[in-house]
Fold this sequence. Notes:
- The chain is of the alpha/beta class.
- It is 49% helix and 13% strand.
- Helix 4 (99-108) links the parallel strand 4 (89-92) and strand 5.
Amino acid sequence: GVVTISEYSAGAIRKRFGLDPAKVKVTYLGTNSLLAADPSPEEIQGIRRKLDLPGEFLLFVGALEPRKNVPALIDALALIQEKHGPIPLVLAGRSGGDETAVARTIERRRLAAHVRRPGYLTDLEIRALYRSASVLVFPSLAEGFGLPLLEAMASGLPAAVSGAAALPEVGGDAALYFKPEDPEDIARTTLRLLDDGLLREQLRKQGFVRAACFNWRRTAQDTLDFYKKT
C-alpha cells in the first residue's frame, strides 16, 4: 500500500503507477502545536523590528523554489501597491533554487524597499509573523498538501492562495483562491482581503474551524489503521 498526504497526491500516484485505488491511503497532515499558543507582545515587536515592518504587511512562507511561483507574487505586489498604496511583503523561508528569478523580478518591478527576504526563521518568529500579518499570499503551482495554508488558518490569518493542486482541498471554504499563473488575479484576490475587514474576520473564524479538522493524532491513527488493514 501507499500512504500519501492529499487526494490530489493520491490521484497523481494512482495515475502514474496504475495502482488499485484501495491500495492508496490519504492521511492528512496536522498543525504545529506551537501555533496554538499566542506569541508574546515582545515576540511580535521583535520580528517587526527585525524586518522593519509597519502595521500592515503580506506574508509568504516557503522555500524560494520555482514551483512556489514567487516571481508572479512579486508582479502581483506591484499591482497591489498601485491600488492599495505601499505595503511590504515578507518572503519567509530558505533558499530553494529560484532566488535569481525572484531577485530579477524585484529589481524589474523596483520593489527592493518593499520586499523582505529574511531567509530561514525560527518557529517562534514564524508564529509571530502568522499572528501579525494582514494576509497570507501563497501562489504555488504545485503543492502535495500546503502546510503554510493550514498553519495560517490555525493562526487566524486570512489567506489568498492558488486554486491549483491540493490547496483548495486543504483550505475548503476558509480561503480565497486565485489563478496562480495570473498576477492580476493574485492582486485582485489579495486586495479583496486587504480592503474588506468583514471578509477577513469571516475567513479568520472559518479558518479556525477548518484547521481543527487536521491533527497529527488523526494522521497517526489513520496510518496505523492502514498498516493493520494492508
